[in-house]
Structures are given as C-alpha cells and as structure tokens.
C-alpha cells in the first residue's frame, strides 16, 4: 500500500495532535502517585533509582565499591516476595541504601501529599560533647533539674545514635548536629531497633544522681529551633550576627557599621572579633562575597574552588556548571599554579567525570568604591548544616588570613545537585552531580572543612559562642591560627 502525499500529511497531523493532547493531559492532570505499590511498580522504582544513581552521581564514580554495595542492597530489596509495598517504607529503605555512597547531599524523601500522622520526636536532643540533653526549645529543658537525656523508650541513647547513623553518609556519622536531626525520626528508628509503634514517647532524664521518666505525645512535624535575629551585645563588647538566607544592601551596611564599632572598641581595650553565623546561606550572595573579599582579602582572590561533574547523554555544561569557567580561560599564571596542584585536563584521573572547571571570585559590579582591607579579625560560624554557598564562603575564607572558622565540620556538600522523582511512588531522590576541590588540590566534597575551634551545637544555640572564645579554657586568648584546632564546650549545668 502506497500512501499519497495528502495521506502522509494527514497521518503526521494526527500523530502531532495525539502528542499535543497527551502533553495537555499530563500538564492539567498530574500523575497520581501510589502509597501502596504493586510488586511490578516496586521493582520499576528500584530499577529507576539505581539507573539514576549510575548516570548522575559523581560519588558513584569516586566510590565504585560503594556503588556495588548499593546495587547489592537494591537487588536484595527487589527480591522481596511481597504482593504490596508501602511507599513510606521504600523511602526509608532507599535512604539507608543511598547513604552507602557517602554523599552528604544524597537524600530520599516522600513528597506526595498524605495525611499527617504523629511520627516525630517532640523534643530537641542536643549533645554538649559528653552528654545528650532534652530541650522543649533551645532555651528550655524538658526538666530543668534533670538536664541529661539518658534513654528513649527505655533504650540507651547510644543505641538510638547508632540507629540514626545508618541513614547518614560516613562524613556525617560523627556529627552531633546530623545525628540530632535523624533522632527526630522516632517512628523510623523504632522500626530499625525493633520497638512497637505508638503515638507517644517516654524519655528518661537525669542529673547524674536521680532520674525520672516523662511521657510526651509525638508531633506531626520535626521540632524546630526558634529563629534568633541578628544580635549584638554592646556591654560585653561582642557581636554575633546570624545572617538570613538572603543578604541585601541593608545587611551589608549594618555589617560595615559593626566592623567600625569593633575597631573602635579594639583600639580602647581588648575585644573579640565580629562573629558571623553563615549557616543559613544556601544561594550565591554576591554582595556578601564582595564585602568579605574587600575587607579581609589581602590580595585579589582568583580561584575559589575547582569542579568536576558527571556528564550524561543530555547534559549541558551551561546548566550544570553555569558559575564555572574552563581552565583554558584562565590567565597563564593561574593555569600554571593550578597545574602544579594536579589540575590538568590532559592527565585526568577518571574519564567518567568532566574536565576541570573553576569557580572564581566575580567582582560585584554594583560596588561603586573599593574598600581598603582591614586588619581586624573575623570569625565565621559553621557546622554540618553549612552546605552549598555557606560552604563556598567557608572555602574562600581559607585564602583570607584574618578570617577563621569555628563550630563543627562543614557538610562537604557544595557541588551541583541532580534531582529526580521515582515514577510510581513519587519519592524524590537527590545526589551530588559533581566533586569540588580546593585550589590546593584537596577534595572538599564528601569531606568538609574543619574549623579552627570546635564548638558544639548546644553552645551555639544558647548564644555562648563569644563567652567560649574568650574563656580561659582555650589554649589561646586570640582567634586560633589556620590549620590548628582547639576544642571547647559549654559549662555543665
């Protein structure tokens, strides 16, 4: 049968019309995900999950042994002979499996809208370096006279911490802040430990001599810390500024005023440096980067970090690495400096990753005047929640001689990310699509940046940072030097 020209055009028109109708249907009638999966749907989601990891995860390239372990764990799940599978349980299983990649950005979350049920711990567990504490909010203990949290549902805290570590990548397993975040998922951890499900929790609190049990109902959302605004204590000659997600010109003006105030106080008597809490910053902040470089950079900041990403068939460098430039675009001296650190595209350690790309400091075009660098000290407060742009600021500070990091080790998650949704369950999956190195050739992704002075989360939330820096317990009265570590903690109550 031979079609005429008119018949051929007619068939193509029908195909285009059918495609248009299908796209319109998908746009106005989004796909409904299932809370209970059939065996076929369950295996389809598992296959899509592992294929996505292989195609897009940079850590799968860096750690082939961990990828093999992940594949083995996924195959074991696929071989479970059950007629139906819960999407919530699959989320929990995949979170444990993806932690094998040791990717701090890896996350699995059930995003579909379901009825909210009580499943979170109603307290804020906090670690002071030796003991766990139970707080109703950052400043109020569950029982003031019995501050230490020893058991949950009769199980010692060390067992709960071990259960939470099963969901964390290796760089985060020893982070009290990351452990506390997962301890909130009491329903999931109960299943792993083997405890019966119930809608309340019994916590045991103690003061070392006597203890008591308190029963509290579970809550529908994780307990969050109360927001604390930017604060300054003029009487104590200390300034602690907690920056918001977005830093505008008003904030920059306030920071400049605080810096001048600190300079005046320092000329009169010894005072502590300005302390900036940058943990909330996740997106690039050109104004803040320019202010930091102008005030604390002794020389022109060129390369902040180096990226290699995991390409795939439909990837575009201008989408994945839009803030980076190729090595070939750098000047001769910068290329030579980076080549001496091992950044050469002609001798790449792995062909599965892209060529080296560079993120450089971009001068803020809105800045009308150039600020002369100050000789004052600056302290940046970080912990394991410091990721993305927060961690880029911390990485840049390594080239600023008067800037130090305090707090906990950063997350090690500052590379571009890739996200997808499993087709049947609607589970959202996120992994790191690249690996970041410092200009000195050290890998930062999956490792993080170690602060010069360690301060636990409890002391940070209770605004004891300035007191601890000035405390006689420190080995140095001045801010620590780079590449050295001092450990301090709050006083026991």
What topology emerges from the helices and strands here?
Elements: H1 5-28, E1 36-38, H2 39-56, H3 58-62, H4 64-78, E2 84-86, H5 87-98, E3 107-110, E4 124-127, E5 132-137, E6 140-141, E7 148-152, E8 155-156, H6 157-165, H7 176-183, H8 186-193, E9 200-206, E10 211-217, E11 231-233, E12 238-242, H9 249-268, E13 274-277, H10 286-296, E14 303-309, H11 317-320, E15 325-326, H12 332-339, E16 357-360, E17 378-382, H13 389-396, E18 403-407, E19 417-421, E20 427-432, E21 434-437, E22 453-454, H14 457-461, H15 465-470, E23 486-487
Parallel strand pairs: 12-13, 13-17, 17-18, 18-22, 22-23
Antiparallel strand pairs: 1-2, 3-20, 4-5, 5-6, 7-8, 7-9, 9-10, 11-12, 14-16, 14-21, 15-16, 19-20
Helix pairs in contact: 2-4, 4-5, 6-7
Largest sheet descriptor: 7 strands, mixed
Please write the CATH class name of the largest domain.
Answer: Alpha Beta
Categorize the overall geometry.
globular
Our estimate of the beta-strand percent is 15-25%
The Rg value, from CA coordinates, equals: 26 Å
- In helices, the fraction of residues equals 25-40%
Q: What is the β-strand count?
A: 23
* CATH architect. name of the largest domain: Alpha-Beta Complex
Residue-averaged pLDDT: 83
Structural class: alpha+beta
What is the CATH topology classification name of the largest domain? 2-enoyl-CoA Hydratase, Chain A, domain 1
Low-confidence stretches: 226-237, 472-493
Count of runs of 4 or more consecutive helical residues: 15
Strand order of the largest sheet: 11-12-13-17-18-22-23
Separation of the first and last Cα atoms? 91 Å
Question: How many structural domains are formed by the residues?
Answer: 3
The CATH homologous superfamily of the largest domain is named 2-enoyl-CoA Hydratase, Chain A, domain 1
């Amino acid at each position: 049968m031979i079609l005429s020209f008119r018949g051929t055009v007619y068939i193509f028109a029908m195909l285009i019309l059918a495609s248009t109708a299908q796209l319109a249907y998908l746009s106005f009638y989004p796909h409904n995900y299932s809370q209970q999966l059939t065996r076929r749907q369950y295996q389809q989601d598992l296959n899509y999950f592992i294929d996505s990891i292989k195609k897009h995860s940079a850590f799968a390239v860096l750690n082939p042994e961990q990828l093999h372990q992940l594949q083995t764990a996924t195959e074991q799940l696929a071989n479970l002979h059950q007629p139906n599978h819960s999407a919530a349980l699959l989320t929990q299983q995949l979170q444990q499996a993806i932690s094998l990649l040791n990717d701090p950005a890896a996350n699995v979350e059930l995003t579909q809208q379901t009825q909210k049920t009580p499943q979170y711990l109603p307290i804020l567990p906090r670690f002071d370096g030796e003991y766990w504490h139970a707080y109703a909010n950052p400043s109020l203990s569950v029982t003031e006279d019995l501050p230490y949290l020893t058991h949950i549902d009769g199980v010692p805290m060390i067992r709960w911490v071990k259960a939470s570590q099963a969901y964390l990548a290796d760089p985060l397993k020893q982070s009290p802040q990351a452990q506390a975040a997962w301890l909130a998922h009491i329903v999931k951890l109960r299943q792993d430990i083997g405890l019966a499900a119930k809608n309340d929790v019994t916590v045991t609190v103690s003061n070392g001599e006597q203890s008591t049990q308190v029963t509290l109902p579970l809550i529908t959302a994780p307990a969050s810390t109360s927001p604390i605004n930017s604060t300054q204590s003029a009487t104590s000659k200390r300034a602690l500024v907690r920056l918001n997600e977005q830093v505008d010109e008003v904030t920059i003006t306030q920071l400049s005023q605080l810096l001048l105030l600190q300079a005046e106080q320092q000329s009169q008597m010894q005072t502590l440096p300005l302390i900036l809490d940058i943990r909330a910053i996740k997106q690039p902040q050109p104004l803040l980067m320019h202010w930091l470089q102008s005030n604390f950079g002794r020389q022109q900041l060129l390369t902040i970090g180096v990226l290699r990403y995991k390409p795939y068939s439909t990837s575009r460098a201008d989408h994945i690495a839009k803030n980076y430039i190729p090595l070939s675009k750098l000047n001769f001296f910068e290329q030579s400096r980076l080549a001496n650190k091992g950044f050469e595209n002609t001798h790449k350690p792995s062909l599965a990753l892209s060529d080296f790309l560079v993120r450089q400091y971009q001068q803020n075009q809105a800045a009308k005047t150039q600020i002369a660098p100050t000789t004052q000290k600056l302290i940046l407060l970080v912990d394991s929640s410091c990721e993305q742009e927060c961690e880029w600021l911390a990485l840049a500070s390594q080239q600023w001689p008067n800037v130090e990091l305090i707090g906990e080790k950063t997350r090690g998650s500052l590379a571009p990310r890739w996200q997808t949704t499993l087709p049947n369950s609607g589970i959202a999956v996120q992994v790191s699509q690249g690996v970041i190195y410092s200009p000195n050739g050290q890998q930062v992704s999956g490792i993080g940046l170690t602060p010069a002075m360690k301060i636990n989360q409890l002391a940070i939330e209770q605004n004891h940072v300035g007191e601890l820096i000035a405390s006689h317990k420190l080995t140095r009265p001045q801010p620590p030097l780079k590449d050295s570590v001092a450990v301090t903690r709050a006083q026991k109550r």
